[in-house]
Amino acid sequence: MTEIEVFESGTLDRKDFYFTGDDYRYHIDTEAKRRFLEFLKDRFNSGVKYKGKTWKWDTAILGKTQELVRFLLRESGAIQFVDPAPNLMRTDISEIRRHILELSHSEAKALGIGKSTLHYLRKNAKSERSFKVYEKVAEKVEHEFAVSA
Question: Which residue in 4, 27, 78, 108 is deepest, having the highest Cβ count within 10 Å?
């Protein structure tokens, strides 16, 4: 998760922070803290590929913590923190947004994208908020515009 996603998603905004002159620090609004923690909870409940399976982040972190304990107790000779790595690739880049907005109903139908899927894709693409495009749909949209370009 990047801090940028928190702001792009609309979870936090500048107005959620305030400055008090007596301690020269910025503070975050209580309601904004709640929204941020909910955002983090959703992220930690998302799936990650680890050891050939899809795990929730909290389970993967627990497993890595247990590996660390075994290493510190000298029950394991090595530890690696590279896997699992978070997927930081964005799926709502401006080019995909543009492709979605340019996609006609007939082109979408030819790609196997239904009316309701196209409707929600367009609705999300018009928004300034971050959104997820499922991998299969993104591949179809990208392929269509790679062929026509």
Answer: 108
Q: In b/e form, how buried is each residue of 72-84, taking b as 16+ CB within 10 angstroms?
A: eeeeeeeeeeeeb
Strands 47-50 and 17-20: unpaired
Integer CA distances (angstroms), 12 to 43, 55, 80, in order? 15, 27, 34
Q: Tell me the sheet residues that pair with 18.
A: 27
Residue 125: closest CA among 91, 149, 84 = 91
Kindly write down the DSSP assignment for every residue of 37-57, as one continuous string: HHHHHHHHTSEEEETTEEEEH
Q: What is the pTM assigned to this prediction?
A: 0.43
- Report phi then psi at 51, rounded to 5: 55, 40
- Reading the chain (149 residues) residue by residue, the pLDDT tens digits are 567 778 877 888 888 888 887 777 888 889 999 999 888 887 777 777 777 888 888 788 888 899 899 999 999 888 877 777 665 555 556 777 888 888 888 888 888 888 888 898 888 888 766 677 777 887 787 776 665 55
Domain ranges for the chain, please list them. 3-44, 46-87, 94-148
